[in-house]
Amino acid sequence: MEIYRGKRLTIEKKVFPLPNGRTKEKIVVHPGGAVAILPIEGDDCYLIRQYRFAVDDYIYEVPAGTIDEGEEPHETAYRELIEETGMKAETFVPKGWIYPSPGYTDERIWLYQAEGLSPCSDYGMDDDEVIEVVRVPGRDLQTMIADGRIVDAKTICLICRCLG
């Protein structure tokens, strides 16, 4: 049974058959797919420092965004990188995908490493985005994860896939 339908997500209450033969009623959030991109230039990477209203704080993240209907993940990666950093990439290297929170959502995030960066203003930021682009030496990223400066799960996963 559909509980909510919005522009970007649907929430559903559903009875699921479990592998042990039992059934369980659960709520599932269907936000659609997304992408995350780690832009790399030489020994440095670009992160964004973005205000996130749900946690009422600024956090370090990789550029990311929701896949629009009819769009392929690599097309979204191209667009989102420009929107959030003002840079385009010559090459996007696929790094697989992740389920960020499979306990309640079927969201899948496709991961990309972006290379061959150059300035681009083809797309602008969304009006609800408060973002600062930050250049970080790649060697500092593991320390930022370990000391809690990077706490965003998709960012940690992508750094591990690209630099781990």
TrEMBL record:
GO terms of molecular function: pyrophosphatase activity
Keywords assigned by UniProt, alphabetized: Hydrolase
Pfam families for the chain: NUDIX
Cofactors named for this entry: Mg(2+)
CDD domains the record matches: NUDIX_ADPRase_Nudt5_UGPPase_Nudt14 (cd03424)
Domain Nudix hydrolase: 30-158
BP terms from Gene Ontology: nucleoside phosphate metabolic process; ribose phosphate metabolic process
Record's signal peptide: none
Gene3D superfamilies: Nucleoside Triphosphate Pyrophosphohydrolase
InterPro entries to which the protein is assigned, alphabetical: Nudix_hydrolase, NUDIX_hydrolase-like_dom_sf, NUDIX_hydrolase_CS, NUDIX_hydrolase_dom
Name recorded for this polypeptide: NUDIX hydrolase
Native source species: Methanoculleus sediminis
Lineage, uppermost ranks: Archaea, Methanobacteriati, Methanobacteriota, Stenosarchaea group, Methanomicrobia
